[in-house]
Each structure stands twice: as structure tokens, then as C-alpha cells.
Specification:
This protein is of the alpha+beta class and about 500 residues long. The protein is about 40% helix and about 15% strand. The strands form five sheets. A five-stranded mixed β-sheet has the order 2-1-3-13-6. Strands 11-7-12-16 form a four-stranded mixed β-sheet. A three-stranded antiparallel β-sheet has the order 8-9-10, with no helix packed on it. Strand 4 (about 170) and strand 5 (about 175) form a beta hairpin. It starts with a helix and ends with a helix.
Length: about 500
């Protein structure tokens, strides 16, 4: 979509929210100034990709260009001014950029971000994820950076395997820079170590959900507690073996290892249906807490649960979070899919004057440990300091930015409280990940968007009670399917399968 067409598309929306945009244009506080963004303003004609590339190259030697980066966190850091001064001193010499950040609080993120994108508010780089990536591309909000990556991001190209770039492709084009972190899914069963030792539980033999029933019955009887204490989204990891192909719902997908690439109504697939039967059995036996379907938050302690992460997270995160020693057991393959890669992305605005500088900055923060630490930990001497052996000692926990949104984990300096480097473990998992057969494919839902939206709503009405075992799948699944079919579900499946078949024919 051309810049001029993009502005015409946005004209009506801009007029409708002009007042709100004026009130919130500098949201996030701190030193943000929208005029500092290296973008063309709302009434100016934005540059085409080739023109912007030229203007970036034409900046004089030693010239510093302004960029604005919009991201999420706990709001603007209290020491933002002193921190950004040090950042700009560093990156000015490295890539010729002066940066301005807008750190939007978690609770304001969706609304504020939507205003920024939909009203064409000036910015250069913006954080996002799979929830908004496709919609924003369809709106024409982002630069197509496909042909600019090699020249402007050589460091990240070397650091991150090509398959992770494949995970952000849309119709074979790239519009976002993925954050190379725990970019694949590894599920682990997290057990209370005290119970494992007391009952001599062989957790390695209990990786299938159906195999857990016997020990859970014992724990329920002996401990008078709920071995599976969950909230309203239930035991949802069972869907992780299905690639949602961009449909945005658990009930449609292609199994990650299905060479035939069959688009499924997942609730009817044998593995999912059997798991739902097990959940219902657990609910009837009191293994699952009876109020699970209505809880928005689960309790801290769990005898057992499944979490996404890596093995050492049992020591560094999962155990400390519930105040217990835990042992963990990997469940299934480590899987790489579009969804896993798109958990953290940074996009370049279609209206930036300096697309190359945006990519050069993102390349630097992904590969330069000093800069990476400044974003991840904060201001040296205020938020953290380096130890004699080259690790990071955190002075406080006041830093407001969310580390997962910024850049690779693998250039972050290890903290002095860690006995080993968890990033090495994560990187190894990424390298071993099994790629989904649908990696690089995104379902274009345009022709069935209304039907798909209605079908999503139908599933959401049932999801809590199905996923917490309240409803018997023998009753619930046929009922859900009947409603889905009336809403156009078969058309959605057919459209998805047609596109998948066409994609597979090119591989």
C-alpha cells in the first residue's frame, strides 16, 4: 500500500479521533516529544520506500537523526532523562541516531497503541506482537523491510537463524524485526519437589495428560487439596501442538508435524478430544478446583502445572514464585511457529524518514552488549552496576521497561545472582526447535473475516467450562460444532485449507 493510499484510508479515522489524539499525543509522560520522531507529519506527503532509503543515505557525515520508539512497560522510568542522555551519547557515535522513547503502561497499552497506529501519529519504531501484526500490515502501517535487512542488520542476520525471519513473513515479505529470545515453545511440567520425593513420582513417565490421573487421585485423597488448580483459561497447553496459522483461535489449526497440512477443527482431533475427556474426569473427581471456570487469577501454589520456558526456570522463576523447590520435566518437542516468533516484534513506521537508521539501531541493540544492558537493566550506577567478574549487580528493581520487548536475550549480561547463564540454555532450545510445517504461512482471513470473528466468539462462550473440565466433551463439542456451522465455520475451514494447499505446493 502506498503512503498516499494509507493516508486516505486513515483520513476518516483521524477526523473521528482528532480530539482524543490531541489530548493523548504525548502519552506516557517523561520527555516524549512527538516532533522528535523522524517521521513525516499528518499533512505532509510521506516518502516512498526508495525515497526514504535515499534520504537516510544522504544524511551528512556525522549528522544525528531523531527517532522515536514506542514500547510497553511500567510507564516512563523515573530516571528517563539521565538514562536517555547516556543512551544517545552512545548510539550517536555508533549509528548516528538520537532516540526518544515512549514507554506506555501495561493498562494503557492497547488503547494508546491503537490510537498511535490508527491516527498516523508520528513514530519510527513500535513494539507489537502477533495480536496486531497482521491487522496493522493490512492497514499499511509498516515498512516492508525485506530488501533492507541484509545491508542494515548484518549482526542480527548472523545471530538469528533464518527460520526465525521466516516466522514473521507475510506473503513472503517481512514487516517486523523479531526479538530473538525464547522464540520457540518448550513446555515443562512443574512439580512440587516435596511431593515428588514423598511419593517417589517418576515424572519422566508422566508427560501425557492421561497418564497423570492415578497420581492425582492419590494426591487428592491424601492431601485434601486440588492437584490441578487453574483459572478460567484452563489447561490450555494441549493446543500448543497446533499451529493456528494466523486464525487467532485455539479451535482451528494445523498440527505442527503434519506433513499433509490438514486444517483441523481441533476439538475433534483425537489428542485434543482425549485431553478434554481427561479434564472432565478430573473435574468430576475433584482433582480440578470447582471454581476454575470463573477465576481470572489462579493461586500461587500448584502441586503440578505446565509452563512455557526452559529447565533452569524451575530454579530461577517457577520455584521462587510459589516459595517451593520444584522439579521439572519437558513435555513434548520444542516447537517453532509463527505464533512463537511473533510474541515480540518491532516494526518500522511506513512514514519514517529514516528506515535504514531504524534497522541499524535495532541491529545495534540486538548485538551490542553494552547497549543491550542499558535497555534491559537501566542506567549504570543508578539501576545496576558491573561486578569485577563482568556480571551485572542490580542496585534496585525500579527499571520500568519490559526486557522481552526490546532485543535479543543472548547479548544480555548475566546477573551476579545466577550461577549459570540461562540464555545459553534458551538459545540451545531455539536451535533444536522443530519448525512447524506452517512456518512462514499466514492465513489471509479477508474473505471470511466476519464468519471467523463470529466463530471465535462462539468458542469464547464455551472455552472456560470446556478447558476446566466442567463440561463433558461428548455433549459440548457437538453443540459447539453445530453453532459454528451455522456461523459459517465450514467456509472458514475451506478457505484456510485452500490457502494452505497453495502454500504447501510452493515448498
Amino acid at each position: 500500500m502506498s503512503h498516499k493510499k494509507y493516508k486516505k484510508v486513515l483520513a476518516a479515522g483521524l477526523a473521528a479521533v482528532m480530539t482524543m489524539g490531541m489530548l493523548t499525543g504525548c502519552g506516557g509522560g517523561g520527555s516524549n516529544n512527538n516532533n522528535s520522531a523522524g517521521t513525516d507529519g499528518g499533512n505532509q506527503s510521506a516518502s516512498t520506500g526508495s525515497q526514504s532509503s535515499s534520504s537516510s543515505k544522504d544524511t551528512g557525515s556525522g549528522e544525528i537523526v531523531p527517532l522515536k520508539w514506542v514500547t510497553i512497560g511500567n510507564g516512563m522510568p523515573t530516571n528517563y532523562d539521565s538514562w536517555i542522555t547516556k543512551v544517545n551519547e552512545y548510539i550517536g557515535d555508533k549509528v548516528g541516531v538520537s532516540l526518544d522513547m515512549e514507554v506506555i503502561p501495561w493498562g494503557d497499552w492497547d488503547k494508546r497503541r491503537n490510537i498511535i497506529v490508527s491516527t498516523n501519529e508520528p513514530y519510527d519504531i513500535i513494539f507489537g506482537n502477533g495480536n496486531n501484526y497482521i491487522a496493522d500490515i493490512n492497514l499499511g502501517a509498516y515498512y516492508d523491510i525485506t530488501d533492507m535487512i541484509d545491508a542494515n542488520m548484518p549482526g542480527l542476520k548472523q545471530l538469528m537463524p533464518d527460520k526465525y525471519w521466516d516466522g514473521v513473513k507475510v506473503k513472503d515479505r517481512i514487516y517486523g524485526v523479531p526479538t530473538y529470545k525464547d522464540s520457540s515453545i518448550s513446555n515443562y511440567a512443574v512439580w512440587d519437589k516435596e511431593l515428588v520425593d514423598e511419593y517417589n513420582i517418576d515424572i519422566a513417565s508422566l508427560t501425557e495428560i492421561e497418564s497423570l490421573t492415578e497420581i492425582f487421585e492419590t494426591l487428592k485423597a491424601d492431601k485434601n487439596d486440588y492437584p490441578v488448580y487453574t483459572k478460567n483459561d484452563g489447561v490450555y497447553y494441549i493446543f500448543d501442538v497446533y499451529d493456528q496459522i494466523g486464525a487467532g483461535t485455539q479451535i482451528l489449526g494445523v498440527r505442527y508435524d503434519d506433513a499433509d497440512a490438514k486444517v483441523c477443527f481441533t476439538l475433534e482431533e483425537p489428542d485434543i478430544y482425549s485431553a478434554l475427556e481427561t479434564l472432565h474426569d478430573w473435574y468430576k473427581k475433584g482433582i480440578i478446583n470447582p471454581d476454575a471456570a470463573t477465576l481470572s487469577e489462579a493461586r500461587v501454589y500448584n502441586m503440578w502445572r505446565v509452563a512455557q520456558g526452559w529447565e533452569s526456570a524451575g530454579i530461577t522463576s517457577w520455584g521462587p514464585q510459589m516459595g517451593k523447590d520444584v522439579v521439572v520435566q519437558k513435555v513434548g518437542d520444542t516447537i517453532l511457529s509463527n505464533e512463537t516468533v511473533r510474541g515480540s516484534l518491532n516494526m518500522v513506521s511506513i512514514n519514517t524518514k529514516y528506515p535504514e537508521k531504524c534497522l541499524q539501531l535495532l541491529d545495534l541493540i540486538n548485538t551490542d552488549t553494552k547497549l543491550r544492558d542499558m535497555f534491559y537493566y537501566g542506567e549504570e550506577g543508578v539501576n545496576f552496576e558491573y561486578t569485577a567478574d563482568g556480571k551485572v549487580h542490580k542496585i534496585n528493581n525500579d527499571w520500568a521497561m519490559a526486557g522481552y520487548t526490546q532485543a535479543s536475550y543472548f547479548t544480555v549480561t548475566q546477573v551476579d545472582t545466577d550461577e549459570y547463564n540461562q540464555w545459553d540454555e534458551i538459545k540451545e532450545l531455539n536451535e533444536q526447535a522443530v519448525s512447524s510445517v506452517m512456518l512462514g504461512f499466514t492465513f489471509d482471513t479477508t474473505e471470511v473475516s466476519d464468519k471467523l470473528a463470529n466463530c471465535r466468539e462462539i468458542w469464547m462462550r464455551y472455552r472456560s467450562e470446556v478447558m476446566t473440565g466442567v463440561q463433558d466433551p461428548a455433549v459440548a463439542v457437538p453443540k459447539i460444532k453445530e453453532e459454528l456451522m451455522k456461523a459459517g465455520w465450514q467456509d472458514v475451514l475451506d478457505a484456510a485449507q485452500k490457502q494452505v494447499d497453495e502454500y504447501m505446493a510452493t515448498k
